[in-house]
């Protein structure tokens, strides 16, 4: 059995938000990628929670799911907003509303 994670959620959220703030225009990153870069691999759900709670002006719309799609958010309409913001950012959607991660995916190791 693994010991429980004793890192305060505010520190985890700050690490996640700091990574998201680095995503450049015309690039996207996945929830899993952000979690790993923040030091919390296999905790992609924490990324969504942190983005939903932050009051910092970060490019939240550049974070998509691992299949290259905008995650559905129900009736709040933010999935349509996210798609519009990505298109305005210059990101192109392919067939089925998918973003080609080989083309548009952020690779911080290449910066």
UniProtKB/TrEMBL annotation:
InterPro entries: ATL_DNA_repair (IPR052520), MethylDNA_cys_MeTrfase_DNA-bd (IPR014048), MethylDNA_cys_MeTrfase_DNAb (IPR036217), WH-like_DNA-bd_sf (IPR036388)
Gene3D superfamilies: Winged helix-like DNA-binding domain superfamily/Winged helix DNA-binding domain (1.10.10.10)
GO MF term set: methyltransferase activity
Key word Methyltransferase present: yes
One Pfam family hit: DNA_binding_1
Keyword set, alphabetical order: DNA damage, Methyltransferase, Transferase
Record has Ribosomal protein as a keyword: no
Domain Methylated-DNA-[protein]-cysteine S-methyltransferase DNA binding: 14-91
BP GO terms, sorted: DNA repair; methylation
Protein name, as recorded: 6-O-methylguanine DNA methyltransferase, DNA binding domain
């Amino acid at each position: 059995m693994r010991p429980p994670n004793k890192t305060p959620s505010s520190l985890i959220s700050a690490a996640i938000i700091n990574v998201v703030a680095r995503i450049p225009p015309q690039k996207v990153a996945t929830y899993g990628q952000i979690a790993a870069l923040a030091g919390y691999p296999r905790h992609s759900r924490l990324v969504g929670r942190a983005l939903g709670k932050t009051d910092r002006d970060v490019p939240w719309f550049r974070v998509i799911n691992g299949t290259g799609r905008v995650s559905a958010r129900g009736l709040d309409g933010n999935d349509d907003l996210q798609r519009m913001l990505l298109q305005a950012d210059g990101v192109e959607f392919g067939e089925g509303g998918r973003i080609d991660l080989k083309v548009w995916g952020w690779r911080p190791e290449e910066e």
